[in-house]
Amino acid sequence: MNIYVSNLSFRVSDNELQELFGGHGEVMSARVITDKYSGQSRGFGFVEMPDADAEKAIKELDQSEYDGKVINVAEARPREEKPRNNNNRNFRNNNRGDYNRNNNNKRW
User: Would you tell me the crossing angle of helices 51-61 and 14-22 to the nearest 10 degrees?
Assistant: First the structure.
């Protein structure tokens, strides 16, 4: 089972997350999510554990204090695919933001 852990301290590392959950069962993987540009933690992570161990860890660790913060622990939901909106730009028919939409004032 994949577990979502939020409200982590920015100082928590992958190894520390693995150690925290390791006390509640077998940890297959633990990862703190980081910003791709700065490398700083984003304050949440994911832990993968067998189902029985995961349910036990969720019950015991949800709303517990770790590294000075109260963490939230829950079963991870599947990631939703969001359509890319390309910053709301519409390049169909070369409208270019609808400037001179009717082409009435062409200069060339």
Answer: 100
Question: Is the CB of residue 75 less than 8 Å from the CB of residue 3?
Answer: yes
Tell me, what CATH number does 57's domain have?
Answer: 3.30.70.330
User: What is the Cα–Cα distance from 68 to 14, expressed in whole angstroms?
Assistant: 17
Here the tokens at position 20 are 């925290």
The pLDDT score that the predictor gives to residue 96 is 54
- Look up the pTM and report it: 0.73
In the chain, the largest separation of any two C-alpha atoms, in whole Å, equals: 74
What's the alpha-carbon Rg for the chain, to the nearest Å?
A: 23
Angle at 48 between CA 42 and CA 54, to 5 degrees: 110
Check residues 87 and 50 and name the one with the higher pLDDT. 50
Phi, psi of 8 (to 5 degrees): -75, 150
Host domain of residue 70 = 2-75
